[in-house]
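W.,

You were right to be curious about this one. When I first looked at the sequence I had no strong expectations either way, so I just let the prediction run and decided to look at it fresh. Below is the sequence, 307 residues in total, followed by the output.
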Amino acid sequence: MVFVNPHAGTNKGEKDWGEIYDLLVKNKIQFDSVFTKHKEHAIALTTKYIKKGYRKFIVTGGDGTLNEVVNGIFFQKNVPTTEFLLAMIPVGTGNDWCRMFHIPFKYKQAIKVIKKEKTFIQDIGKVNYFSSSTSKRRYFINVAGMGYDAVVAAKTNKDKEHGKGGVLTYLKNLLTSLLFYKYSNIEIKIDEKNSRIKSKTFSLSVGICKYNGGGMMQLPHAIPDDGLLDMTHIKKLGKFSVLKEIKNLYDGSFINHPKVDTYTGKSFQITSKPLVYLEADGESLGHSPFNFEIIPGSLRVVVGQKK
């Protein structure tokens, strides 16, 4: 089954679907297809088509659509998650999961990767969070961000709703959000250790893969099948220091800054004052407190070849 998000990549999903359809047919890939109509529709569609017997899914969209299909797979409990195979044709603005697994951004090459069906079993993250006073759960395949990262993602998502997207939009929001952003007091517990990390915090990232924000290497040491979550903790920084470090986000060297710490663990418990907000795979969610867990070796995905 091919899930098509027509709004992905500022409506590229709809504009380019004819070309993608023809390429899938040309490569003799048998498929049915369905268009998503609204936010979280892909979650419901995935559940629906699992019940109909589908086990192979292709996402034609961005990181957010991919996240929704993953949640459709993991929210259902009738079929083991390792029985599914998930592939992607990147149409979104960030396509950060594809960067990790060498999925080409050109449709023709991405579909050739799908045709080869080289598979990899990756870990998946799970986060419990709050929306007002209601506890909620979300699975993620790439990276979750809190604090400043979530603020920027929320502004970027609002821009997407008005037909504006892309890396430049993200960078604009990254810079302009600095003017009003306030730091939070964060407390982090890793696994079952008694010690806790306490700090005034600028931003936090937790994930399985390396990239978010359209190619920023927020978690440069992440290994997607090691059974561990990676965390990058950016403590309180002056605004000038933030601006100075932006270029270093793209090669991961920002983690060498004395105000940046990295950790690994099977779980992270995070509390804050005031509340901080969350995004997962670019999707804006709720707020703290958070409980992160890793689900090791839980999803088969189609990957490309490193050049």
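Here's what jumped out at me. The longest helix spans residues 148-161. And, maybe more interesting for your project: The mean pLDDT is 93.

Coffee later to discuss?

I.
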